[in-house]
Amino acid sequence: MALKKGDQAPDFTLESQDGTQVSLSDFKGKKNVVVYFYPKDDTPGCTKEACTFRDQYQVFRDAGAEVIGISADNKKSHADFASKYNFPFTLLSDSNNKVRQLYGVPATLWIIPGRVTYIIDKEGIIRHIFDSMLNLEAHAQEALKTLKAI
Hints:
The protein is of the alpha/beta class. About 30% of the residues lie in helices and about 25% in strands.
């Protein structure tokens, strides 16, 4: 069952690119969180999307938000990807796709893991969901627009 705007975002704990465990609940009451699911590290589309988040990262921070990217890639792949493009945000490894399934992120053509962004407020409520495989830069734009309205 896919989540919708107004739902409580399910908590999760996953390993980051530096080996630490990160939970959504770590941010509750402290920061809004932008969680974006993407298909694969260091591919053209995913790189463009992640670089858009990177280039706007200070704007996200100024809006009181943290950015978290999630894919099935492992910790080393995430570390290499983050290092190569100087990402200042966390990438989490959902190697068994449990969090992707928990959030109801659909696959494209039943094969490619979907690209969906969730904007979650400080209380853990989903304020906006943006689902687009091809409009890569719009993920950050939609997130910022929503954060400004919170």
